[in-house]
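Technical annex B. To support the medicinal chemistry partners, we prepared a structural model of the target in complex with magnesium ion, based solely on the information shown next.
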Amino acid sequence: MHEGKVAQYVFDLVKETAEEDLDIKGKKITELTFAMARPFSVVPDSFEFYFTELVKNTDLEGVLLHFEESEDLEFGAFYLSGIEVED
Amino acid sequence: MKIQVLKNVMLKNDAIGADNRWLFDKKKVFAINMTSSPGAGKTTLIRSSLERLTAMYRVAVIEGDLFTSRDAERLEDFSIPLVQINTEGGCHLDAKMVHAAIEKIDLDNVDLCIVENVGNLVCPAAFDIGAHRMVLLYSITEGEDKPAKYATMFTRADVVIINKVDIAPYLNMDLDAIEAEVRAVNPTCRIFRVNSLDASTLTDWFAWLDSEIASTLQA
Ligand SMILES: Nc1nc2c(ncn2[C@@H]2O[C@H](COP(=O)(O)OP(=O)(O)OP(=O)(O)O)[C@@H](O)[C@H]2O)c(=O)[nH]1
Ligand SMILES: [Mg+2]
């Protein structure tokens, strides 16, 4: 139920990262990867629903989302772990 | 081209939570995040505790609720700083909302800040609001399987208060079995058994608060 807010956090984080990282800046972002640790604090389907809605009519519209389980991160963690850009 | 990053998404919230905790520490305020499913008894416990607590400490309460101010109204006869947060449908308090609320409180004149979160046994676990301890009320009417089913909340709790023990006989509930279910997901939390309608059952809860407040003041 809190995934709408988490989607906003991700949107802001991606924008900031794209500004700071010269490999990303100005390029079209095509995929985002997330690393999450058990017990999951975000439900991927629900997150995807809100995120898709949020990015409509923005540069991120149409971006693909991938979720990977991680055993290295702390309990319940939800990290942005990869940004795929067009070459 | 894939660019590897490793950025904690929840830091958007948690960084503000850390600011709140810094502020509480600086002002020597002990802050607790009271969580539970709807109706487990958070406001009842706060009410029953306030008589004793306000005699000893300067207490402030932040009430989180979706739309109403009914819980805050139940505490109005105590003359304490009382701030209502309405989440307008949101299922949890986040650090930013709590930050806005503590800005309305004169923390220089507070020893204990109690934050009543929105009744929800899932979402509040994901949002650090900057309290020092998370207190989870677990009403025995919810059934003994809740710690296993809602493990994230139970694992994050520093204190689990088993509430409504007065009606255990009617529910045919074995309180030792309930406590064992809590222990199975959280071996280290403090566990108290209370009837929130009867302050005489709150002795251990008060003793825990006393020691936590004392160490905050000494820090
Ligand atoms: N018998 C009994 N009833 C209790 C006890 N604690 C709370 N109640 C009752 O349970 C109901 C819900 O209590 P509240 O204090 O409003 O619960 P809450 O957790 O604040 O509820 P929300 O804020 O709506 O999530 C009320 O009718 C209380 O009187 C208890 O220890 N024993
Ligand atoms: Mg309440």
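Notes passed to the chemistry partners:
Residues 56 and 198 of chain B are 19 Å apart (CA to CA).
The pocket of guanosine-5'-triphosphate (ligand 1) is lined by residues B 36, 38-44, 71, 119, 163-164, 166-167, 195-197 (CB under 6 Å).
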